[in-house]
Design goal:
Elements lengths: L4 H9 L24 E4 L5 E6 L5 E8 L13 H8 L9 H10 L3 E6 L4 E8 L3 H14 L4 H19 L2 H14 L13 H6 L2 H11 L5 E7 L3 H12 L25 E6 L5 E9 L4 H15 L5 H7 L6 E11 L2 E10 L5 H13 L6 H18 L6 H4 L1 H6 L4 H11 L2 H14 L1 E8 L5 E4 L7 H9 L20 E7 L5 E6 L5 E9 L1 H4 L7 H12 L9 H4 L3 E3 L17 E9 L3 H13 L5 H19 L2 H14 L12 H5 L3 H11 L5 E7 L3 H10 L26 E5 L6 E10 L5 H22 L6 E8 L2 E10 L4 H13 L7 H18 L3 H14 L5 H10 L3 H11 L6 E5 L1
Parallel strand pairs: 2-6, 7-11, 14-18, 19-23
Antiparallel strand pairs: 1-2, 3-5, 3-6, 4-5, 7-12, 8-10, 8-11, 9-10, 13-14, 15-17, 15-18, 16-17, 20-22, 20-23, 21-22
Helix pairs in contact: 2-8, 4-9, 10-13, 10-16, 11-12, 20-23, 20-26, 28-29, 28-30, 28-33, 30-32
């Protein structure tokens, strides 16, 4: 509710753009990292799942309520999501302001997201504040008053959210695909947010009735994760959630969940839609009601399309008629149905009919599985668990559908099947599943004609199916698999230097079995030739081709269960968090017993050669698509233009994706030439975090990355430059083209040393004040905020907001008043709250091994050392009211400001 990240991730990740992420804690791989889970049903019917993760220092309480868009009346569409908003507005014990203040005071992240079959409330907080966090969460869910005076304000905010989504062509495309798949007006095609008409007319009485009926403990499930002691945590859960809700009606029966039904089984339905890409989906709907069946289905989905070497990619690549950007397969959990969903995004000239035929070929081929494919799928799925269990702040968000639908005792049986299945059992399961499965294809985008086709016309020939089956790998490569020695004690982060100039940061802890590698490449934009902007991104996207198997089967990385990320995905909202012109990155993680293989594969990627023309064209296509998508949204355009005006010639002003013109000039030869200096060891910072002792890690590093050759220095790059001061106010309006306007302001000023930490606190408090005024009181925006960034002896203050065009004048004046007021009345409680919230976010971003590795790299390169986090915590804790008042007077005053507006 307080941020948009969870809601947007949940909305998009429900589709098969991501491979299936499995949940469990009892596998052979996971037991060393996590304690066993436990499922309990309280006396009031509330189901509780305990998932301990010792040592994380954080807890996550996720409450799922059986209140989603499928349970609404059509005329009240959007009620579940609207209610999610209203529950943040006050209870019988706390006002809205007190709810927000209580969560902020303990440094908690309090958010929610509404899905088709449930609403998910998440509370992430420091472990020592478990009781406080559950008290706030239970209060919201069981004792909300749905205050009249806040109802209309929330109506305006939801209308802003709807307006924002209208500007996202991919959201509109997904809405159209849902209508094709389930039938327009059906439960599962109903928009989660509702429509402008239903929200404008939504009566409070109907929302209150819905709340009283659905928000009862017997219709809830709580998943508690993190650093807690079992008995004490369970007692707190009982104290907070065992009470009956204030609104009564606990004896009423909640509205039951409708079964999921496909609209046109055995048919393909298509619709021409104005969108950046054409998307084709094949849905295989079947009844897999047992944990064993769902484990088998998960293995099949991974073999079908869980990786770039999966059968779907091989089937598509075998046809010149289906050039595509992405392809994937995943399992979707629905009431009364499980779906294996194959999806691809076609390039402009791709054939949707041929793509559908190739997808059907992929599914038909699953009746014959090769040993190498199964080995890779099993290792990957079990390895993902070790990684995912670290992500307690996202775990339930990503895995919500499965967590909501799984029965008690599910996980051990699910994992046992993953580990024990052989190729014959899996092939027999595929034959059994397909015997009574329903298949339906939907396609939407600019490259399709609206129509209907019988899938019988798209059935592949036996030869096509056999050819795909025979391409699978019968054997697995001989990969070194060795557990590191047990740690005598945890090893704190330390900076090391190899002889070739490579900077290494190492940290080790016995509480994990992950091995996380984060590689930072310095000075991305400074090193790119002006005529080839985006070449660094193209280079990174070429890395996977270097380690790809020639036969197209599972790679060594797949068999090691590794995960590689070389660039952010444009299809995942907020996945540009790590993207910056200042550096580029590679993230590679696996379980500990494959750590030597991971380092070896990284060394191969960094040495090239990058001569795969097809890989370059795929990368170019991905970037051009990203550029087009970014240009379609007002918020992206205002951000890009603001950066140009604020940073001028500083590298921070430059686009990491380049332009159509610069990308078109890049050849494989250019990439190889560029890589020699860009990937020189002295231009790299490598952080490794896991449970590998330092001496063993260094020995392996010397054998792999220690062999990289340093490039002769040209002396042309001198490192990051300080951003320019904002000397003159500038206001610029640019073309909007959407349903929502975007407004951004910024300034860069000299930073006095004594104001460094106080400015961060002042900006956070000013942001809270502005949100309370412009969002919570006036309902002008869905997302808005103020932030500060520190650049040595200079600081930037940024403010942003998305709002409907009719609100723009009032919104601009309101935002300006918070950036130019020069006075910020604060209390000691507000300062404590702002500091705790900031420190909690810092801790949250370091929960995972990869989060720690990223932070160590960034702090070493940009913030003066790996001890920055400690210095920041100490500095923030010392901030006083006088410090905040002084910082506000200096930096949130009537100073030159750059403003960019897209109407």
């Amino acid at each position: 509710m307080q941020t948009t990240l969870a809601r947007h991730c949940a909305r998009f990740l429900s589709r098969p753009l991501l491979a299936l992420i499995l949940s469990a804690t009892a596998s052979a791989l996971a037991t060393a990292a996590t304690a066993p889970h436990e499922e309990i049903t309280l006396e009031n019917g509330m189901r509780v799942l305990l998932l301990p993760h010792p040592g994380s220092g954080m807890i996550a309480s996720n409450v799922f309520v059986g209140a989603g868009s499928t349970r609404e009346e059509a005329r009240f569409a959007g009620s579940s999501h609207f209610l999610e908003h209203v529950l943040f507005n006050g209870t019988t014990h706390r006002t809205q302001e007190e709810l927000y203040a209580a969560a902020d005071r303990i440094g908690a992240y309090n958010n929610a997201t509404t899905r088709q079959e449930y609403t998910h409330y998440m509370m992430v907080a420091p472990a020592e504040r478990l009781a406080d966090a559950l008290d706030i969460q239970a209060d919201m869910l069981l004792h909300s008053t749905l205050p009249n005076e806040k109802f209309e304000k929330e109506r305006g905010i939801v209308l802003e959210e709807l307006s924002k989504d209208k500007d996202d062509p991919n959201y509109q495309l997904q809405r159209s695909l849902d209508n094709l798949l389930y039938g327009e007006g059906s439960n599962f095609a109903r928009p989660v947010l509702g429509t402008e008409e239903t929200i404008r007319d939504l009566p409070r009485a109907s929302v209150e009735e819905y709340y009283k009926r659905q928000y009862v403990p017997s219709n809830m499930r709580l998943i508690l994760m993190g650093d807690f002691e079992r008995d004490a945590a369970l007692e707190i859960v009982r104290q907070k959630f065992l009470v009956e809700p204030d609104h009564g009606r606990a004896s009423d029966t909640p509205q039951s969940a409708p079964a999921c039904v496909l609209a046109a089984p055995d048919h393909g339905r298509s619709q021409r839609i104005d969108a950046p890409n054409t998307v084709v989906e094949l849905v295989v709907a079947l009844h897999a009601s047992s944990p064993e069946d769902e484990a088998l289905l998960s293995l099949l989905a991974h073999i079908a399309g869980g990786t770039k070497s999966g059968r779907l990619e091989r089937a598509l690549n075998a046809s010149p008629e289906v050039p595509h950007n992405e392809a994937s397969a995943s399992v979707i959990y629905r009431q009364g149905q499980r779906q294996m969903v194959l999806q691809t995004r076609l390039s402009a000239d791709g054939s949707p009919l041929e793509a559908a035929r190739r997808m059907i070929t992929t599914v038909r081929s699953l009746t014959d599985i090769k040993k190498g494919e199964l080995t890779a799928a099993r290792t990957t799925l079990l390895s993902q668990e070790v990684s995912q269990i670290e992500k307690l702040h996202y775990y339930a968000l990503f895995q919500g559908d499965r967590l909501w639908h799984m029965a008690e005792g599910y996980t051990p049986r699910f994992l046992a099947t993953i580990e024990a299945t052989d190729t014959q059992t899996l092939a027999e399961a595929a034959t059994r599943f397909l015997a009574d499965a329903q298949l339906q294809v939907v396609a939407g985008g600019p490259g399709v004609e609206t129509g209907n086709v019988a899938l019988g016309e798209l059935e592949p020939s036996p030869d096509q199916v056999k050819a795909l089956q025979s391409s699978g790998s019968e054997t697995a490569p001989d990969i070194q698999r060795r557990r590191p020695s047990a740690l005598a004690s945890d090893e704190a982060p330390a900076v090391l230097q190899l002889d070739n100039g490579l900077t290494v940061i190492h940290a080790a802890a016995a509480s994990t079995r992950m091995f996380a590698i984060h590689l930072l490449v310095k000075d991305r934009s400074l090193r790119e030739p002006d005529t080839m902007r985006g070449i660094a991104d193209l280079l990174h996207r070429s890395f996977p081709s270097v380690i790809r198997e020639k036969d197209g089967g599972p790679s060594r990385l797949d068999h090691a269960g590794g995960t590689l990320k070389v660039a952010d995905s444009q299809w995942i909202p907020y996945d540009d968090y790590y993207t910056t012109p200042l550096y580029s990155f590679v993230r590679l993680e696996c379980i500990d017993e494959y750590y030597e293989e991971a380092l070896s594969l990284l060394a191969r990627m960094l040495t090239g050669p990058y001569d795969d023309e097809a890989a370059l064209e795929d990368a170019r296509s991905e970037l051009l698509s990203a550029i087009e998508r970014a240009g379609s949204r007002p918020g992206n355009r205002t951000r890009a233009r603001l950066n140009e005006l604020v940073f001028g010639d500083n590298p921070r002003s430059r686009s990491v994706t380049g332009s159509e013109e610069t990308l078109s000039l890049v050849t494989t030869q250019n990439i190889n030439d560029f890589s020699r200096e860009y990937l020189s060891p002295d231009n790299l910072v490598l952080a490794i975090v896991g449970n590998v002792p330092r001496d063993e890690a260094v020995a392996s590093l010397k054998k792999t990355l220690g062999q990289l050759r340093r490039a002769p220095s040209t002396g042309s790059v001198v490192g990051s430059l300080p951003p320019p001061l904002t000397e003159v106010s500038t206001r610029e309006e640019i073309e909007g083209g959407g349903n929502q306007s975007s407004l951004r302001m910024a300034r860069i000023m000299e930073l006095a040393p004594e104001d460094r930490w106080a400015l961060l606190v002042a900006a956070r408090i000013a942001s809270n004040h502005m949100q309370q005024d412009l969002r919570e009181t006036r309902g002008l925006a869905y997302s808005l905020g103020i932030s500060a960034a520190l650049y040595g002896n200079r600081a930037a203050v940024f403010a942003s907001m998305g709002t409907r065009p009719e609100n723009l004048e009032e919104a601009e004046a309101g935002m300006q008043s918070y950036l130019a007021g020069g006075k910020l009345d604060v209390t000691a409680d507000e300062i404590e709250t702002a500091v705790n919230k900031h420190l909690s976010r810092m801790r949250m971003r370091r929960i995972t091994s990869m989060g720690q590795a990223f932070t160590l790299c960034r702090d070493y390169f940009l913030r003066g050392g790996i001890d920055y986090t400690q210095r920041e915590a100490e500095g923030l804790a010392a901030v006083t009211r006088e410090d905040v008042h002084r910082a506000a007077a200096r930096y949130l005053s009537d100073a030159p400001t750059i403003t960019v507006i897209a109407r």
